[in-house]
Amino acid sequence: MIQFQNVSFSYDSAQSVVENLSFTIGKGETVGLIGANGAGKSTIMKLLLGLIQGQGEITVDGLPLNKQNIPAIRQKIGFVLQDSDNQMFMPTVYEDMIFGPRNYGLSKEETERRVDDVLNRLGLSELKHRYNHKISGGEKRMAAIATILAMEPEMILMDEPSTALDPVNRRTVINTIRQLPQTKLIASHDLDMILDTCQRVILLSHGNIVADGDAEAILRDKALLEANRMELPFCLQGYPH
Known about the structure:
It is a single chain. This protein is α/β, with parallel strands linked by helices and 241 residues long. It has a single domain, classed as Rossmann fold (3-Layer(aba) Sandwich), CATH 3.40.50. It has helices spanning 41-48, 70-76, 93-103, 108-122, 137-149, 167-179, 191-197, 215-219, 222-227, and strands spanning 2-9, 18-25, 30-34, 55-60, 63-64, 77-80, 155-159, 183-187, 200-205, 208-214. The protein has a six-stranded mixed beta sheet with strand order 6-7-8-3-9-10, with helices on both faces.
């Protein structure tokens, strides 16, 4: 579904943010993208969406990422932003949720079905007609995830999906991610959440892939994580999960 071949990107000529990256994510995989601040996680997300352009080749579901294919590729991808305020731009949760499906040509009836189904699944039905500026940060985070699920994309990118969530909503998001059939790429510092949701992990450092493989094996490797400015997940340190 997603393929990077020798992809590099730099904001200036002095230093590459990502350098000569090559990896493939298959259909239905859930992959965690981890690394310290500045490792290149968000840059990879932006490259996938065509928000920035680098060198090398990126392919999404068989389509080369270029200006001609960007509209079709973006229809395949749902992106949960790190900052929900940048994602929720309509007055109410309901209006945000119907915006994408209706603009992609879905009927009013199908859109309503999707909205109600997603809200029920996430336990958010009471937010349907709430104003975005009157809900809490955690509620807005959950609503932002709901807007993407209502679009039923083939692939989902998530940038720090557990940020600002209380324990109950965090567990709801984890359970939801587990049940979603789509291909998922999740960038996060919440390694416990990555351990709970991902079968595979790509560890980045200074724009390079340091490790790519079984999530539990990488997340249990204390020496590897510490060498890349990270720590073991709390659950593996003996702290409550």
